[in-house]
Amino acid sequence: MRILIVEDEAELATLLAARLGAAGFVVDCLGDCADAFEAVLGAPYGLVLLDRRLPDGDGAALIPRLRAARPGLAVILLTALDQVAERVGGLDAGADDYLVKPFDMDELLARIRAALRRPGAAPSPPILCGQLSFDPAMRAVSVAGEALHLRRRELAILEVLIQRAGRVVPRERLLDAAFGCDDDITPASVETHISRLRRRLEASDAGVAIHAIRGVGYVVSTK
Q: Which residues neighbour 218 within 8 Å (Cβ) at sequence distance 6 or greater?
């Protein structure tokens, strides 16, 4: 899952990116509305953390444009504006949630998980493939009931593959899911992480295999 942080306080943006990265998300950081909108047009973000007081305007005013560009995009406003009218205005603008600074990081992660679930829908059941189980809500992986801890990019790649088990996922889609705008990407970036992921799945007897479809991408299936 890829998240965009739109925050002009560099120190806070760095802290958020570090914590979300440790939780397994791929994160990009930008500091104004204009750059944020262009980024959303060009990358498959699942969620935007959006400050309200940005150098080029109120982040809440950007939400309708983000929704028009990507209708399924989740948006959480992060702001020091804590009056009831301001919170109501932010939610009425289309935000999925509104968190007032300062906030607890664990609460933020819980709100992100909630925002990534469809409103009113029952929790998505785990996706099973072989002995492997992936919980979409918690982004947790287990094999035969035992937790399997993956590195951030391995988790991002597996998340995309397992949600499309049996179908070929283009290499470019895996790149978008696993790497941020500022990451150093080489021609072998996806292949390197796929190789590591294969070794971890093999060592844990997950009962799944990742196959390369030459010139197209990858597919995960049971052995």
A: 161, 168, 169, 171, 174, 190, 194, 210, 211, 212
